[in-house]
Each structure stands twice: as structure tokens, then as C-alpha cells.
């Protein structure tokens, strides 16, 4: 999961909760949860104006309240992470950054990058200042070092590269527009938006991960939870040893004996709950339901713990049908949808792909810049998804390409016709 995604995830009424391949929205007052599934294992996700979900071979946009699937596209390859800014979705793999239009999921461009297991330094890039909105900040580990990189999403240029001691945890302060990192040498380091070091303080203990707390930081250690000020001085300490990081939330820690609840103001333990089932995730709830904690066990049963009374109550789950939301027919424009199977600098390579595919569907070569093998056009993207089947490629939305021929063809016993450059079902 992307850095900071689970640090900032709080559950309120109708707020999506994503675990493995399941998506829930929880109504605290009714003690009910809607459950939605998507095709394939969920690799990454981000909650913004919609819930954006990345699976092994698809990208989804879901409504955060009703979990209806508002849009989706198949992907030609596996991506490891996603990030979101105001206008775009950025998909990241080991050697490429792909930019998708956030509004209609059309492919915009790709950027080749040096091989590495890159992950975004922040997944919700709309928090980044406007003058840096076209940049993406990536981190990749190499042995005992981490390499930080800034890429320009417009030009594809590598704007900055910085090698530092391996980073184990990182957060982005939206108020100060600063990155704060915790490295393997137990240093907290602050960087500005140009990745210039502004401050570094050493800790006298081992840190696993950290988060902002009051005017300092909560640092989680194998020895317990430390509260340190911005100079690294220990202000408070709770000797609580907890299970793996992915299970816990900021003030809720799963120990070998049970769940410990920390007071968000004093950092003192304010409750303990003994559990016998194996826990998969613990999540806090924002006001006005802050006295509750969501608990998900390894059998995907949802329960709510009342911290004040230490009572537990099961949540009723209602499985949703994974169907598309009712789509409003797009206004007719001079642009159409095209499915691009490949783009080549060499014409012969484009012809080879063209010849391999043309017996099944009427593809063409668009030579506006590169030699692009395309299939289309379509008035709507969903019609194209029905036809392409197992073909790999990207959906593009651009001005109509004139095609003089009229061609009838069949896909899975359905008959289609390409006429006046537009494909429709007969």
C-alpha cells in the first residue's frame, strides 16, 4: 500500500474501508456495512473526490458513499502504485510512469524511468502547492540507501535526485509543505519541496514508523511509543510492544495480550480490550463517533468496540452487486474513443502488429507523430471495452480520425460495423 495511505485513513459514516480485495462503507449509527468487490486483487487505492482502486489489470473509480462503480478501464500491465492530483491519476511501475486523465480515464502520456521499485512519497498530490502540481515525488530503495526523485509530469524530465540513508517511514505535512522522513539511523529529517534538507535531528532509540502529534511526533519503536518534540527530545514514553505496523492505527495498538487504546491528548492508556480472534486491521473513527473503534478480523468479520464501556458489537454486512453506475450519455463532440494497441518509432514494427491483429478487428495505423496501431472510434468507452476482450492497450480520447472504408466484423458472435470512422453494433 502506498506511503501515508493507512496513516490518514479514518472511518466515519459512509467512509470507504479497503482491505485486500474488499471495499466497505460503514454506517456507524445503523451498525451496518456495505461490501463491494472488484475484479482482481486490490494493489493500491486512494480516497479523494472518489475512491480510486488499482487492481492487477484494471483501474476503478467508485462512489465513496454507495460504492457504485463510476468508471473503469482495463490495464495492459501490472502497476505497483497510484497517486492522484487535481486533474490526473498517476500509475507507477518499475520502469514507467503513466498519466491518466482523472475525468474520463483516457491515457495521456507515459514517462520511461530507470528500473526500480518506485513508490510515491505522497499519494494525494492535490495537497502539493500549485506551482509544484506538475511534479511527482518518488522514492526507491537500494541497499542501505533510498533515492528520492522529482519528475516533471509534463516534460518527463528528472528534476531532482537525492541519495540518503534508507528511509523507513515518511509523511508529508500539508500545512508547511514539508516532507519528514525517519531513516535506518534513527534520524528525523525535514525536506522542502525541492528536496533540500531543512532540518535533521537524531533519536536515541530505534524507530519503526512515526506520525505527527501535537507540536512534535509520535515515534513507534519495538520498545514502545515515544512522544518527541521537533528537536528529538523525548517528552513521554509508553512501554507498549505492538504487532506489525499495518494492523495498527495512530492511537490503537494491538499487543500480544490485546488492544491498547491511547488517549489522543495525554498519550496515556485509557483502555484495554482482550481479543481472542486474529486481527487484520484496527481503525479509529472521527467525531462524532470517536468513542468507537472498527476491528476487522482475519475472517473479514467487522466489529465495533466502544472504548468507554469496553463492549463489542458486530456489524451487519450487506454485499453489493458489482455493477456500473447509470452513466449519463456523453455529449456528442468531434472527439471519439480509440483503443491503442501499440506505438512505434519504426513503421515496420507498427505494420507487423497491424497484420497480426487486422484479421480479427479493423485496426489502422495513425502516423500523426509515432506510428500508433489503433482500433476505433467509439462514441462511448464502455462499448469499446465490450469488444476488445483480451487485447492489451490504452484508451485514448481525441479528434475523429477519418477512415474511408466500411467494414463489417464479428466479436463473440456479436456483429459490428465500421462506417464513417465510427464503430457501432449492428
From TrEMBL:
<dbReference type="Pfam" id="PF05036">
    <property type="entry name" value="SPOR"/>
</dbReference>
<protein>
    <recommendedName>
        <fullName>SPOR domain-containing protein</fullName>
    </recommendedName>
</protein>
<dbReference type="InterPro" id="IPR007730">
    <property type="entry name" value="SPOR-like_dom"/>
</dbReference>
<dbReference type="GO" id="GO:0042834">
    <property type="term" value="F:peptidoglycan binding"/>
</dbReference>
<dbReference type="InterPro" id="IPR036680">
    <property type="entry name" value="SPOR-like_sf"/>
</dbReference>
<feature type="domain" description="SPOR">
    <location>
        <begin position="335"/>
        <end position="384"/>
    </location>
</feature>
Amino acid at each position: 500500500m502506498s506511503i501515508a495511505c493507512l496513516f490518514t485513513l479514518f472511518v466515519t459514516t459512509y467512509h470507504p474501508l479497503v482491505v485486500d480485495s474488499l471495499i466497505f462503507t460503514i454506517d456507524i449509527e445503523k451498525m451496518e456495512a456495505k461490501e463491494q468487490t472488484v475484479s482482481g486483487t486490490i494493489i493500491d487505492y486512494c480516497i479523494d473526490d472518489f475512491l480510486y482502486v488499482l487492481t492487477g489489470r484494471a483501474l476503478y473509480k467508485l462512489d465513496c458513499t454507495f460504492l457504485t462503480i463510476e468508471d473503469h478501464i482495463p490495464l495492459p500491465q501490472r502497476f505497483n502504485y497510484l497517486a492522484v492530483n487535481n486533474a490526473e491519476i498517476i500509475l507507477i511501475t518499475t520502469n514507467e510512469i503513466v498519466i491518466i486523465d482523472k475525468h474520463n480515464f483516457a491515457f495521456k502520456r507515459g514517462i520511461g524511468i530507470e528500473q526500480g521499485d518506485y513508490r510515491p512519497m505522497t499519494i494525494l498530490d492535490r495537497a502539493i502547492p500549485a506551482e509544484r502540481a506538475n511534479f511527482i515525488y518518488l522514492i526507491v530503495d537500494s541497499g542501505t540507501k533510498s533515492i528520492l526523485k522529482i519528475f516533471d509530469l509534463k516534460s518527463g524530465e528528472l528534476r531532482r535526485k537525492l541519495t540518503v540513508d534508507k528511509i523507513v517511514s515518511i509523511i508529508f505535512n500539508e500545512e508547511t509543505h514539508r516532507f519528514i522522513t525517519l531513516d535506518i539511523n534513527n534520524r528525523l529529517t525535514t525536506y522542502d519541496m525541492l528536496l533540500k534538507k531543512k532540518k535533521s535531528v537524531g533519536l536515541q532509540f530505534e524507530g519503526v514508523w512515526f506520525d505527527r502529534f501535537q507540536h512534535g511526533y509520535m515515534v513507534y519503536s519495538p520498545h514502545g511509543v515515544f512522544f518527541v518534540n521537533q528537536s528529538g527530545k523525548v517528552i513521554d514514553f509508553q512501554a507498549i510492544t505492538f504487532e506489525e505496523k499495518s494492523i495498527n492505527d495512530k492511537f490503537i495498538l494491538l499487543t500480544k495480550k490485546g488492544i491498547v487504546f491511547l488517549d489522543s491528548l495525554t498519550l496515556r492508556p485509557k483502555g484495554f480490550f482482550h481479543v481472542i480472534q486474529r486481527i487484520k486491521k484496527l481503525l479509529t473513527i472521527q467525531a462524532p463517533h470517536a468513542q468507537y473503534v472498527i476491528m476487522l478480523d482475519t475472517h473479514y468479520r467487522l466489529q465495533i468496540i466502544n472504548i468507554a464501556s469496553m463492549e463489542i458489537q458486530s456489524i451487519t454486512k450487506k454485499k453489493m452487486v458489482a455493477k456500473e453506475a447509470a452513466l449519463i450519455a456523453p455529449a456528442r463532440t468531434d472527439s471519439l474513443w480509440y483503443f491503442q494497441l501499440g506505438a512505434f518509432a519504426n513503421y515496420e514494427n507498427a505494420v507487423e502488429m497491424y497484420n497480426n491483429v487486422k484479421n480479427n478487428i479493423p485496426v489502422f495505423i495513425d502516423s500523426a507523430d509515432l506510428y500508433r496501431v489503433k482500433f476505433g472510434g467509439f462514441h462511448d468507452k464502455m462499448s469499446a471495452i465490450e469488444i476488445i476482450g483480451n487485447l492489451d492497450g490504452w484508451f485514448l480520447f481525441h479528434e475523429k480520425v477519418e477512415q474511408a472504408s466500411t467494414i463489417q466484423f464479428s466479436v463473440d458472435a456479436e456483429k459490428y460495423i465500421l462506417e464513417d470512422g465510427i464503430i457501432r453494433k449492428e
